Amino acid sequence: MDFTFPRNETFERIAVALEGMGASAVPKFSEETGRYDNASIAAWLARMRDGKNYGVSIPKGSSTACTKTGANAGIANPKPGVIGRAAIDPYVNQGAFFFVEVNGGVDADGMPYVTAIDGDGRFSRLDDTWVLTPVLYSLETETDDAVNLTVSDTRQPGMKRQPAALLPNGAQRPYMLYAKYALSVDADGKPRSVSGAPVKTRSVSHDGGISLMKTASTGDSLKVAADDWYVKTMFLLKYATKDSQSVFVGCTGYDITATPTLAESNTTRVVIAKDKADQILIGSAMMFGTHTGTSTDRGYDYNCDIFDGARVTKKVAVDASNVAVYFDVAKPFSTATTYQLATAPWNTGSCDMVEGDGSPTSCTDGKQPFVVQGIELGLGMLEVLGNVLIQYTGTGAVVYVNPDTKNEKAGSSPDSALSAGAFPGQAAEGWNYALYCKTVNGLMIQQGTGASTSVGICDGNYKVADTTVGWREWLSLGSLWDGAIGGLWYVYGNNGTGNARWNFGSRRSANGRSRGEAA
């Protein structure tokens, strides 16, 4: 059938990218398979290449400022948007930065597929939603002072394919897919990447993700190093800073608990003190429990047994001292003044109304998620990487990356895993702050020590003592209360491979099955 892009506000960007292309240059949809032909998508992307080398020089010292190089030099940093004020982004439709939202997934052999493209009349963010990009090529070189990263949509001399570009059989992917949304599950427990759902937490861990995603028999896995690499690379190129929280703080300062000031029955609201309600954002999510125990920890069932991850729909003043907070819930509930209300990770799709990179109302208030290159992040939970583990050897810590998640196992990395080098930090247990980053075996990892939340990478990585023996999972981004230590390079390395908590989540990955670092 013909592939046409309607001229509407949400799809204007893609229509512009297709100006002047003939019918043979656009993706072809098969009614028989319900999928787009992968070769036609690859050809479509090839027609939109600009062949330019976009670079950024990342200083190894304490300075957070990076320098744009090559075709990237002179391009202004984007100005992130909020709902009602679109981002100003000079990178839109530029070769290596091109992306489009699609529905689709991944087959058991790791081959991605597309069933709908935003604007074709089939696409819906209520179906599994991904950000589709061209396969990128990169070159990293080092000097004594900097790591120099160059990325292109066209392979240039010396460049390697991006992480996970090669399938296990050695063939190059026709394109890359990245989960737009954090992990949620449907009524049957099936993993999803959809808008408008509470995130899946409480049972998500490295080990739990293997069974949840049926990793050994499908192409699905939890988020992998290649997904992490794409976001970090795009951020560095576009914003030219090592300090990700200087642009997007994420939901890392939204730790609020409250008790009802009024007992009610058959209601969808909780009345709390005004000073607490004033801190709560409409659109964010909360949990509510009978609080029959003594702990305020959100991990206890009694602190979320009424609802968990319900979205705040409005706030209405009851009197001068009290405000009713209303929730989107399936059925009414009762409240008592002994119950506990607490903030929770945001629902997926909270940034859907943001046009371009940005957050719902503020990128820097510490309460809100953000979107970069169409990918929604920083919802107030840690994201587990499904193919990265830290091994504490008794004399230090080494990070391992498993190229093919079909081989992933619980408790430790498989023999096929590749070393990404040392997990940086002091010998004693505690928070550490790296100076810069570089890519090792597909993982963009922190390097050096001695920085802080205001210099170097600025994000914290937590390491247990070098004398420890055992494996730990890789927890990224930051939780509701992590504050200045959170960010794109944050890692918490203290939890066992099977540990799960209310603030541990992840996302689907279509890139778990790979041959390894591509030549």
Low-confidence stretches: 1-11
Q: Given the C-alpha coordinates, what overall shape results?
A: globular
Q: Count up the helices.
A: 5
Largest sheet, strands/sense/barrel:
8 strands, mixed
Q: Termini distance?
A: 37 Å
Strand content: 25-35%
Rg, please?
23 Å
Oligomer: single chain
Labels describing this entry:
519 residues; mainly beta; eight-stranded mixed β-sheet; six-stranded antiparallel β-sheet; 33 strands; disordered N terminus
Question: How would you describe this protein?
Answer:
The protein has 519 residues and is mostly beta strands. It has five helices and 33 strands. The protein has helices spanning 12-17, 38-47, 206-212, 225-239, 274-277, and strands spanning 29-30, 35-36, 54-59, 67-70, 100-106, 112-117, 129-133, 137-142, 146-152, 160-161, 176-179, 184-185, 191-192, 221-222, 257-258, 269-273, 285-289, 307-317, 322-328, 340-344, 370-372, 375-377, 382-393, 397-401, 418-422, 430-433, 436-440, 443-447, 460-463, 469-477, 487-493, 504-505, 508-509. The strands form nine sheets. Strands 23, 24, 25, 26, 29, 30, 31 and 32 form an eight-stranded mixed beta sheet that branches.
